[in-house]
Design a protein that fits this description.
The structure holds 2 protein chains of 2 kinds. Chain A is 29% helix and 29% strand. Chain A contains 10 helices and 15 strands. A 7-stranded antiparallel β-sheet of chain A has the order 6-1-2-5-4-3-7. Chain A has a 6-stranded mixed β-sheet with strand order 10-9-8-11-12-15, sandwiched between helices. Chain A has a two-stranded antiparallel sheet with strand order 13-14. In chain A, helix 7 packs antiparallel against helix 9. Chain A starts with a strand and ends in a 12-residue tail after the last helix. Chain B is an alpha/beta fold. Chain B is 35% helix and 17% strand. Chain B is built from 19 helices and 18 strands. In chain B, strand 10, helix 16 and strand 11 form a beta-alpha-beta unit. In chain B, helix 4 runs antiparallel to helix 5, helix 10 runs parallel beside helix 19 and helix 15 runs parallel beside helix 16. The model of chain B has no long low-confidence stretch (mean pLDDT 93). Classes of the chains: A alpha/beta, B alpha/beta. Chains A and B meet through helix 1, strand 7, strand 13 and helix 9 of A and strand 7 and helix 14 of B.
């Protein structure tokens, strides 16, 4: 069993947990993910590692309620435990393999959408700890859904926040911020975008136009997370890739987002979509895959 | 009784069992087993033993069954096999022990598999446990993977007195026995879980949720975690796809995904959270045992199921018994047929497959006649799901993270057949990780050979 040491509500339907998993904490790197299973009858849910403490042997995860399992998970409290917690899975972010001095010379921008802020955080933190300060654009539906603002401010070079409805800082999408920065004469050598598929798709369309190499972190349906089933397969350029072992990060300009969005709907019924939209209200980010 | 024929085994009726996930074959009772045992001629140089990859003393255990000494029979099997309740059920006996049986020349071979199964089931029901190790070697061995090869290797090493820990990537031990082979062929709670329990009773520790190659490397096991040797029994779990257009459509599954959802995650049960979609008409592409398992699972979930296979019935790689069961249950076989494209609607949902008819040409390198397309024979099969069962290959997760571990061009780990030794010191391997997808019993044989190899290596150190 894997004990939950901290359970905190970050925003409407968004939760953070610190979980005791010493083996995972000892070996994980930014960009990797875990799979959690609540109890005997539970399903296996992939979640990006948002932070880790090697000494304490803990992993931080952040999740959003998108269905029955995550809803059930949100009721767990500190002192409860998950029956299974496996990882680290996937490949670490490419950034950590690059030469630090080379990275320092580059201009890097992260674009985080909604709950995607959580997986962006450990990468920005890692870079900051290695002396590389990067720009971060955080976009959310509204003010209440801005996550980890203070934590991010502490490790980012420049932090730009935007809300879809203009309820905080400015109105617009992350892509609007990037466009404005370019209009002001900023240039970036690299972009890393993490968030809902539709958001990553539009970031990639823009960065292709602007000529910025872009990495995205994909979140397809997964079962085992170790490469044995292909549920998470994606078309990347001419190749079929398994996100769980080949990714989750890929060259965003090569990913077939339209296919990925279709595949995400596999287990969604019309009724389920309607229910999700009703349940999620303002936080409905198209997790149902029906928003294009 | 007719001594030329096997005592028939009781089975669920086809039109009943094709709607449930309970075991198809009900097995022998004591009376039936004893009667079948009288058919054994108790040969001096028994050919059946040579046909068994782990050389169980078959005449001796069958003699004990005949006499009603079931506990003694269990001990005889236990000397050679760690998973008799499993092997009695899933071994392809017709090409192994039973294929060699003298009785089989004029009539039907002795039903060795069903007798082994009876003995193992009887031992479980009567709480007969395997014998405990007495010696302590004071050395630690790590076993990667808890499938048939890992369980066998771990059990044998524990019996020799080693301290063994199995590392398993999934949340439940058993490998293909829990995620691949369905409940209706191999019950999970009664049969697999209790065989795993028997291995634990020997003192073997099992750590689930550890992915070697990600959570830890082999070098770390040897250098940081204090293991004296490692056995890799990680199997061949990487699914193959055809590479045809439309294959990434929503309702195209690998057999591994489909079976993992159903078997490991119990998606066929309403009280479990993992979903599995229910379909009206499904094609399973491929002709092996995995294809039969996937087809019979889809059938039980309410679909009309077609096996689409590019060769003819004669070349079907699946066991004869499985093909027979599948047909009895109502699976439709579309032989000499090959899919060329998956067709979808605008939402990306499967509407059918485009197929071409095949004929058999000259034998290829494997000796099987090569299927050749018949020009102009294209047709469309309307479907709402496709399950790809084209075979699997070893997952590169371990080989790519272990320095000095040699692999061949099929990504299989190179290891000596007689003792499992790899190109890296203190590292042994066996089962599908070495051979590519094969059988449960061959994996067990390899696990056994490696345990002996590891013992020899550590004894000489």
């Amino acid at each position: 069993m894997y004990k939950i040491l901290k359970a905190e509500k970050l925003a409407e339907k968004i939760f953070l947990m610190d979980v005791e998993a010493p083996r995972v904490a000892k070996h994980c790197e930014p960009g990797q993910f875990i799979i959690v299973k609540m109890d005997e009858k539970g399903e296996r849910i992939p979640l990006t590692i948002c932070d880790y403490d090697r000494k304490a042997g803990t992993i931080t995860i952040v999740f959003q309620i998108v269905g029955a399992s995550t809803e059930k998970m949100s009721h767990l409290e500190a002192g409860d435990a998950f029956s299974d917690f496996v990882g680290p899975l996937g490949c670490p972010s490419e950034l950590i393999h690059e030469d630090i001095e080379e990275l320092k010379k580059q201009k890097i921008v992260f674009i985080a959408g909604g709950v995607g802020t959580a997986p962006v955080y450990p990468q920005v933190k890692w870079l900051h700890e290695h002396g590389v300060d990067v720009d971060v654009i955080v976009g959310a539906k509204n003010k209440d859904l801005i996550l980890l603002e203070d934590e991010m401010k502490a490790v980012a070079g420049n932090l730009y926040i935007t809300t879809d409805d203009g309820s905080y800082v400015r109105k617009g999408m992350g892509t609007d911020v990037l466009k404005d920065l370019y209009a002001q004469g900023k240039k970036y050598d690299k972009c890393i975008a993490i968030g809902p598929l539709i958001m990553m798709k539009f970031v990639c369309l823009l960065t292709k136009e602007l000529g910025i190499p872009t990495v995205v972190s994909m979140n397809p349906i997964m079962v085992d997370g170790t490469g044995m089933c292909g549920a998470c397969r994606l078309q990347v350029g001419d190749e079929i890739k398994f996100a769980c072992v080949d990714g989750p990060e890929f060259d965003g300009h090569l990913v077939d987002f339209d296919q990925a969005m279709k595949r995400q709907q596999t287990y969604k019924t019309e009724e389920g979509r309607a229910m999700l939209a009703a349940l999620e209200g303002d936080t409905h980010h198209g997790g149902c895959g029906n928003c294009n | 009784m007719d001594v030329m024929k096997k005592v028939p085994v009781r089975e669920q009726a086809p039109d009943v069992r094709n709607k449930n996930f309970d075991e198809v074959c009900l097995g022998y009772n004591a009376e039936e087993a004893q009667e079948e045992a009288t058919r054994c001629l108790n040969c001096k140089n028994a050919r059946c033993v040579q046909g068994c990859p782990v050389s169980i003393n078959i005449p001796e255990f069958i003699h004990n069954v005949k006499e009603g000494n079931f506990e003694e029979a269990y001990k005889v099997i236990g000397k050679s096999s760690a998973l008799p309740a499993v092997c009695g059920r899933v071994c392809p006996q017709e090409t192994q022990c039973e294929g060699q049986c003298i009785r089989g020349i004029k009539g039907e071979a002795v039903s060795i598999g069903k007798l082994e199964r009876f003995v193992a089931d009887w031992a479980r029901e009567n709480n007969v446990a395997p014998e405990m190790p007495t010696e302590k070697k004071g050395k630690k061995v790590a076993v990667i993977g808890s499938g048939p090869s890992g369980l066998t290797c771990a059990g044998d090493l524990a019996k020799m007195g080693y301290e063994v820990t199995i590392f398993e990537a999934l949340h439940e031990p058993g490998g293909v026995l829990v995620y691949g082979i369905p409940e209706f062929r191999l019950p999970k709670k009664t049969v697999v879980a209790s065989e795993v329990e028997n291995v634990k009773k020997l003192g073997v520790k099992i750590e689930t949720n550890v992915v070697i190659g990600k959570s830890m490397t082999i070098d770390q096991l040897l250098n940081e975690e204090g293991f004296d040797a490692v056995f890799i029994g990680s199997g061949a779990g990487l699914p193959r796809f055809m590479g045809i257009p439309g294959e990434n459509a929503n309702e195209v599954f690998s057999a591994n995904e489909y079976l993992t959802r159903s078997n490991l995650m119990k998606a066929f049960r309403e009280d479990y959270d993992t979903p599995i979609a229910k379909f009206k008409k499904v094609a399973v592409v491929g002709g092996g045992n995995v294809a039969m398992d996937a087809a019979r699972t889809a059938l039980r979930l309410g679909a009309e199921v077609h096996i689409v296979y590019r060769r003819s019935e004669e070349e079907l790689p699946a066991r004869a018994e499985e093909v027979h069961h599948a047909k009895e249950e109502g699976i439709i076989f579309d032989l000499l047929t090959n899919p060329t494209e998956v067709l979808t609607d605008e939402k990306g949902n499967v509407t059918g497959i485009k197929c071409v008819k095949m004929e058999l040409g000259e034998p290829d390198a494997s000796g099987r006649r090569k299927p050749v397309e018949i020009p102009g024979s294209e047709f469309v099969m309307d479907l709402d799901a496709v399950i790809m069962s084209l075979g699997t290959s070893p997952n590169p997760l371990i080989s790519s993270t272990t320095k000095g571990l040699e692999i061949n061009k099929r990504k299989c780990i190179v290891a000596e057949e007689e003792n499992g030794q790899t190109s890296k010191e203190a590292v042994y391997a066996g089962g599908d990780a070495v051979t590519g997808a094969a059988t449960v019993i061959l994996a067990m044989g390899a696990g056994k050979a490696a345990a002996k190899g590891i013992d020899e290596y550590l004894s000489s150190k």
